[in-house]
């Protein structure tokens, strides 16, 4: 089978590195010249560190270097196996017909994606999970396939139909229908900024339409309820259960960059996606109506408070990119939050009128007070360990423990044993830092099997 590499439908200025002016058969030796340039990463993908915002704790640099080495090995393995041909072969496992071209798509932090086009014009997405960017690749894929099937069956949120998944020479993959549409963030972002951020001059009509689309997604996720926190799976009888712990953004980052090995719930709990963001919501270009929501791998049954907290993505920026002074962040955030609340209340009212939502399922009342009560900050700190210190000392500590004059005011809450443990822990971490050695919990082969 000969699958060509296509250059069609790439974002303006974002083409796969060409090997010729025309589509080239991917099995051609010319494809060996394909540089490591998986958009949006620069050509030297390994040399570019993860985003280092001002609010995050220092990651273990040795663990990060090891993660980058694993990723480099994985990328080289992918390129050696002629990824366009591989994508075509995998698509044909699950979709009848003849694949003709395969094109590299803009990819996110955890996956490398190819769109495969068939002779009959049908288009499919083949997605590879990037080892080194994800810990527990197999678990991630199984979780995502399950949650996509659940969301498709039990909500009105449009989700790409999964056609199959499995193992290949570069690890786990998923084949699904290709979803047409443009990322919602494309209508909102400031194109003059390198870091994705909301355009301060975006028209209010576009912003409200975009927020309405996001509100519909959030309401759809907030309705299902589960008895436990964890990943959603379908059992042999066809029922949906929560049989295992979730794979979250925070867990992945800690395992990847902090070198931590794998080691009680009151419900009901609601579906929550750590990576829900206008970047992952595709819309048609005429009405900004959602055509599909993608990247579900970090979705799980979570504390309901996560769903009730103000959305962190209202300015499009990732929390790690917020200002050092969070008070300055709030100056920009609060006006957009008020706009979103107005839109959310309108969306809820329409759904209640249409009998698809009950009054008791509104999330806007609790969300409105989430900054005043501290719920927004507590939920964010629990999901973003790298920001915990900044958030805790500024927005959590004095709310629950009163004025803070000195750190000794808080040590009194610890037992003598806990104080000793803190001292021992700090001494151990300082010793590890001075030694500069990394304890490898897993080999590359073991990582592949996770």
Write structural notes for this entry.
The protein has 450 residues and is an alpha+beta fold. The protein has 2 domains: 4-180, Phosphorylase Kinase, domain 1; 182-400, no CATH class. Helix content is 38%, strand content 15%. It has helices at 61-80, 83-94, 137-154, 204-222, 249-257, 304-308, 326-353, 364-368, 370-373, 375-383, 388-401, 408-411, 416-435, 444-449; strands at 4-5, 24-25, 99-104, 111-118, 123-129, 162-168, 171-177, 182-183, 225-226, 231-234, 240-244, 269-273, 281-283, 290-293, 299-302. The strands form 4 sheets. The protein has a 7-stranded mixed sheet, sandwiched between helices. A 3-stranded antiparallel sheet has the order 8-13-14, with no helix packed on it. Strands 9-12-15 form a 3-stranded antiparallel sheet. Helix 10 (375-383) packs antiparallel against helix 11 (388-401). The relative contact order is 0.11. Mean pLDDT is 81; it is low at 7-56 and 251-265. It comes from Penicillium oxalicum (strain 114-2 / CGMCC 5302) (Penicillium decumbens). Residues 1-26 are annotated as: Disordered. Residues 1-12 have a biased composition (Basic and acidic residues).
* Helix/strand order: EEHHEEEHEEEHEEEHEEEEHHHHHHHHH
Alpha-beta classification: alpha+beta
Shape: globular
The fraction of residues in strands falls at: 15-25%
Portion of residues within helices? 25-40%
Give the distance, in angstroms, between the N- and C-terminal Cα atoms: 31 Å
**Number of discrete domains:** 2
Helices, by number, come to 14
Structure summary, number of beta strands:
15
Radius of gyration: 23 Å
Tell me the major beta sheet. 7 strands, mixed
Q: What does the average pLDDT come to?
A: 81
Low-confidence stretches: 7-56, 251-265
Q: In which order are the strands of the major sheet placed?
A: 2-1-3-4-5-7-6
